[in-house]
Amino acid sequence: MCGIIGYTGYRNAVPVLIQGLEQLEYRGYDSAGIVCYDHRKGGFFLIKEKGKLAVLKEKIGNFSVDAHVGIGHTRWATHGEPSRANAHPHIDASGRVALVHNGIIENYAALKAVLQKKKVRFVSQTDTEVGAQLIGRCYVKGKGKSLFEAAKAAIPQMRGYFAFVLLSKDNPDTLVAYKHSNPLVIGLGQGENFVASDVTALLPYTRQVIYLEDDDLAVITRKDVRIFSLKSQTWVKREPATVHWNVSQAQKQGFPHFMLKEMHEQPVVLRNILEKRISKKGDIFFDTMTGGFRSRLRQIDRVYMVSCGTAHHAGLVGSVAMEKYARIPCRTQVSSEFRYGDPILSAKDLVILITQSGETADTLAALREAKAKGAATLAIVNVVGSTIAREADAVLYTHAGPEIGVASTKAYIAQLATLLLLVFYTGKLRRKIHPREFKTLIRDFRRLPEHCAKVLQEGKRFEACAQKHFSRRHFLYIGRGYNYPTALEGALKLKEISYAHAHGYAAGEMKHGPIALIDHEQPVICIAPDSLTYEKMISNIQEIRARDGIVIAIGSRGHHDLEKMADEFFSIPRTQEVFSPILTIIPLQFLAYKVAVLNGRDVDQPRNLAKSVTVE
Ligand code: AGP
C-alpha cells in the first residue's frame, strides 16, 4: 500500500519527510520521492527514484535545501510499472502544483483523454498524474489564487477511492489534503503540522492527531488546520485524538502480527477484486488482457498450472475449476518439478504461473522453460512490475496489496478469486458455460466478501480450539475435490508458522495408509462443506471416530449431522462448492495462527523461511 507524508513547520522539511517515509517502508513499495518548496531557489526541489529509500537518500545526497514545507510518497505500483517517471510526487503541466496520492482514480482513462484533447502532455502511465493535471488546470484557471478551491473544483470529476496531498509554488507554506476511502491523518505539533497515510509516520513528532473523515478537504499550515467537508459543504471541527500505540503496533494498525492484520483484510481484498473485475452488468473484464491473448485463450487445448507452496495449492483449485467449467484438460505441477521435467509443450498449451512475489526462482525458471518451448504463458501475480509479471506473455494482477507476513493468507484468497474469474471468463469465451449458469456464478461470487467477513467473526472459537490442541505435534488434514488443496494449504499454514508436523491428504486415500495414524491422540482436520462428495467425507469422519480420532470439522452452515460427529465444528456460509475453498481456508489460517502464537513462534518471520524464495 502506498505511503504519504506531508510537513509544514519550522524544521528543515527534507529530513522530516525522509524519516516519515522510513516509518512507512513496512507497507511495501517499489519507488519513492519527495518534493519541497525551496525558499532559496524559489521553486520546487523534486527528487524521486525507483527502488528503496536508500536510492532516494543517495540521490538527495548533499543537496542543501532551504525548505520547511514538503510532501513525500512510497509507491506500491497499481497502474504502470515501478519507475522514476511513475513515482510520486507528480507535478502538473504548469509546474505549479505537486501531488502525492494513495488509492485509485477509477475514471482516470476518461479524464486523461479529455485532458489530452486540451493538449495536456502526460509523462507517466499513472492515474495519479491525471489527478495532478486535473487539479493543476483548475488551479491555473483560478489564477493560482487557491489550491483549496482548485481541489474543490476537481474532486467531483474524479471517481474511485483515494487520498491525496497537494503543495503549490504560490502558497508554499500550505498543504491541502483530501480523504476519500483511503486513510489520512493529520499530526498536530507546536509551530508545525503533519499529514500522513497512517500514524506510524507521525509518532516521532506527535501523538496528537486528527483522523480525517471521508470527503474532508483540509488546509494545513504550520499554525493551523482547517477542515472543509465536501459532504456537508461546510467547515467542520474534528476532535483531536491521542495515539497510545508504539511504532510497531501502529504499523500493524493495532494487530499483534501482520499475518492477523492480513487475514482480516481478506473481505476487502475480495471486494476490491469484485470492483475491478466484474462490471455492474455482471461481465468479467481483465484490464491487462489483450485481444491477441484472448484469441489464444480460445485456441489452447491444454492448461498447466505451475507454482510453489501456497500458490501451488491455488493452482490445484484452479485446475479442478478449469476442467469443470472451461472443459480444458488441466495439469498442475510445482515449479521445481516442471522446470526439470522436460515438459512436452506447444503453442496450443497455456502455462499459468501463479506467484505472490513474482520473483520465485523456480517459477521464473518454469516460465522461461515454457516460453522456450513455445507455450503461451500467463502470470497471476500480486507484485506489479515483478520479473515474472514482466516476462510472461500476459499478466493478471491479484491486487491483494503488499503481504508482509511470510505465511500467505490474503494473497492466497486473491489468487483463488482471480483464477476462478479467469476460468469463468474462459468458459464463457469458449461457450462452455450456459449464460444462466454464468449469471449464477457471478451472483455467488459477489456474495463472497460478506461470507468471508462472517467466517472471520468466529475468531473466539478458533482461539478455544487452539487452546486444546496447541501442544500436539502431529496434525492430519483431509479433504476432497476443491477442498483437497484446502487440506494441503491448511497443513502448510500450520507447519510453516508453528513448526508442528502437519500433513494434508486426499480423504479418499485414508484407507491407503494414513488411517494407521488414527488414535485418541491424533487430531484430524476434516474439510467437508456442501459438495458432490459430502457423504464420502462423512464416511471418512465416521472411520476416524471409530478409532477414537479427534475430529475438527469445517462444514457448511446447517449441517448438524456433521456438527454432532465433530469434537470441534466451524461452519462457513453455504455457497457453491467451487467457491468453498475461499471460505474453508479461513478457519485453518486462524487455527495455524493461534497454535503458533500459543507456542511462542515468530509468526510473521518463521524460522528458515523467506517471503520470496529467489534462490533454487
Ligand atoms: C506460503 O505461506 C509460503 N510463504 C510459501 O509456500 C509461498 O507460497 C511460496 O514460496 C511461493 O511464493 P510466491 O507465491 O511468491 O511465488
The CATH architecture term of the largest domain is 4-Layer Sandwich
What portion of residues belong to β-strands?
Answer: 15-25%
Radius of gyration, in angstroms, nearest whole number: 26 Å
Helix content: 25-40%
Output the CATH topology of the largest domain: Glutamine Phosphoribosylpyrophosphate, subunit 1, domain 1
How many discrete structural domains?
3
CATH superfamily of the largest domain: Aminohydrolase, N-terminal nucleophile (Ntn) domain
The N- to C-terminal Cα distance equals 29 Å
Instruction: Identify the CATH class of the largest domain.
Output: Alpha Beta
- Distinct compounds present: 2-deoxy-2-amino glucitol-6-phosphate
Give the topology, please:
Blueprint: E1 3-8, H1 13-24, E2 31-38, E3 43-50, H2 53-60, E4 67-75, E5 90-91, E6 97-105, H3 108-117, H4 127-141, H5 147-154, E7 160-168, E8 175-180, E9 185-188, E10 193-196, E11 208-211, E12 216-220, E13 225-229, E14 234-236, E15 241-242, H6 247-251, H7 258-264, H8 266-277, H9 291-299, E16 302-307, H10 309-326, E17 330-334, H11 335-340, E18 349-355, H12 361-372, E19 376-381, H13 387-391, E20 394-397, H14 410-429, H15 435-446, H16 448-456, H17 459-469, E21 474-479, H18 484-498, E22 501-506, E23 523-528, H19 534-545, E24 550-556, H20 560-565, E25 568-572, H21 580-598
Parallel strand pairs: 16-17, 16-18, 18-19, 19-20, 21-22, 21-23, 23-24, 24-25
Antiparallel strand pairs: 1-4, 1-10, 2-3, 2-4, 5-6, 6-7, 7-8, 8-12, 9-10, 9-11, 11-15, 12-13, 13-14
Helix pairs in contact: 3-4, 4-5, 8-14, 8-16, 10-14, 10-18, 16-21, 17-21, 18-21
Bound molecules: 2-deoxy-2-amino glucitol-6-phosphate.
